[in-house]
Amino acid sequence: MPARTLFDKVWSAHEVVAETRDTPAVLYVDLHLAHEVTTPQAFSMLRARGLKVRRPDRTLATMDHSTPTQTEQVFGRVPIKIDAAARQVRQLEKNAAEFGIELFGMQDERRGIVHIIGPELGCTQPGMTIVCGDSHTSTHGAFGALAFGIGTSEVGYVLATQALLQRKPKTFAINIEGRLHPGVSAKDLILSIIGKIGVSGGTGYVLEYRGPAVQAMSMQERMTVCNMSIEAGARAGIIGPDEVTFDYLAGRPRAPKGVDWEAAVSRWRTFATDPGAQFDAFVDIDAAAIDPMITYGTNPGMVVPIGARIPDRQGDAVFDKAMRYMGFRGGEGMLGKPVNVVFIGSCTNGRLDDLQAAAQILKGRKVAPGVQLLIVPGSQQIKKQAEAAGLAEIFKAAGADWRESGCSMCLGMNGDTVAAGQYSVSTSNRNFEGRQGKGARTLLASPLTAAACAVKGRITDPRDLL
Amino acid sequence: MQSIRRITSKTVVIDSSDIDTDQIIPARFLTTTTKEGLGQQLFADWRYRPDGSANEQFVLNHPQSRGAEILVAGRNFGCGSSREHAPWALLDYGFRAVISTEIADIFRGNSLINGLLPVVVDEPTSQWLLTHPGAKVDIDLESLRLTLPTGASVAFPIEPFARHCLLNGVDELGYLLSKLSDIERFEAARA
Ligand code: SF4
After folding, report:
1. pTM value > 0.95
2. How close is the Cα of B155 to the center of ligand 1, in Å?
3. Where do the domains of chain B lie?
4. CA-CA-CA-CA dihedral for B180, B181, B182, B186, to nearest 10
5. In A, residues 215-274, which contact B (CB 8 Å cutoff)?
6. Looking at chain B, which residue has its C-alpha nearest residue A301?
7. What was the ipTM of the complex prediction?
8. Does domain B8-137 have CATH number 1.10.150.170?
């Protein structure tokens, strides 16, 4: 057999019917994750057609996108403030009950952002196909799973059949040599990769992140990297599973146990790219050459090292429009620019190690006057862990607002928003116009950088505070 | 689903690249539980002023844009989230096709499923369209050709199965349901 890529192995292991010129492949879905925002119309479609959920055991639902992060609203002492969001939450409760799907509801201690809880519970495993009505499903690729976002109609298809129609994507090797320097994180790495290949550089590909820098990363860091594959246009990112992956999964509630565990690990080991396997495209990245990064524009590819200047592309319509929106000018330096809001959270950087990184900077320091710092754990479990580890105390002492888990200010549809014209340094993944609220200006950065900006009230290189 | 063979319409041009789904339909409108009515909020933050009045500068508010069924946009249209609300909003507004040199993956798939044609053209054709707003364009799904009012005609690609579904007004789910026995066999073989 010719040398094959990891992606190729996962793909062919799930081909129910292979693709032909005229028809896409029928691809089996191992795990379907669901949330309140992209599923209501899918369940309505099932109802309209008189269909059942074929494999309720393979779908897992949670509440994250439109759910509030204010404790009183989550724990029911006051109603959810946004009526339409409350309706979506009730709708998912009703749909899950009617169709027999497991739901981590509002007050469940396992609830959290869909891409955080899958791995946390050990549901996300190597070699699986995982889909969700959410583009950041690419996160789960960190475990050597083929994981990608789908639309609501496809959510319905998966519920009805446990399969999808898919054309096989091409493969793109992102070879990462060297090591990240202290103060430089996985977020900086992926931002720098997107800056290099562009926001549509990955369209049509599955990105396989490989090389010594990737092997040296924790699962949390790998998830941060895979999470933003979609920001380069790729539907999926994938990383070969190894001891780090197995160690992470061992003992998780939904991971295999006992003899099953041994069998699973030996099967998981086969999901590796063979030496000499061919990719359709590749790029080499030197991790040691990367600085903390920050975005200056209105897509994640508009990014520079934090100490650098905004490039001057005056006359380029897209650039000019972005500069007008952001209130910046080509050629300006990023350091020292004022900041109004700092958001630490999201499926990109809402895990415990992200909170630890932020705490490293915030410990014994205060948020600059006039700056709002919102810290939102990625899941209820992370919230508990952060509280047990004393991180929440550090945050509160610094003057931060500490919340229940959820997507929060990442997309601003749950009441957590940035006001028009304000500058928000955010650890999330999208700096699109209006993403965090109408007129909000988002600057994407790592948790270290975000925390440093909160303390100084200005764009600050986190290495100055370490 | 209605079958689609041909779309002939004047165009509306938004000459901007990387138009993401948050622009097409901002997240705060995703709290709906139906597909209907999203056309009202299409490009909301560009279309309306903070006080809710129409922003006359924005092309969809120009009188000559009324009735156009084809949207022409810059490179990498529809990037960002997987929200199917984006094609729902475009369709609800009255668009039936989007033309660009590059259309993001998930958006493209979502569009095909809903009967919004994602038409990918070469750079010169795109440039011509971007600089001739309101041009009357013909998109023929049967021959997979786009014809400009100049008479020039170019081929465009559409995934063959999606084309079959659109031409015949059938949806992918019917096909998937017809494969249930294969799916069951696959599950049995793995267990
Ligand atoms: S945190 Fe942001 S990117 Fe992640 S799932 Fe929620 S809304 Fe999407």
Report:
1. yes
2. 38
3. 8-137
4. 100
5. 230, 233, 235
6. B18
7. 0.96
8. no
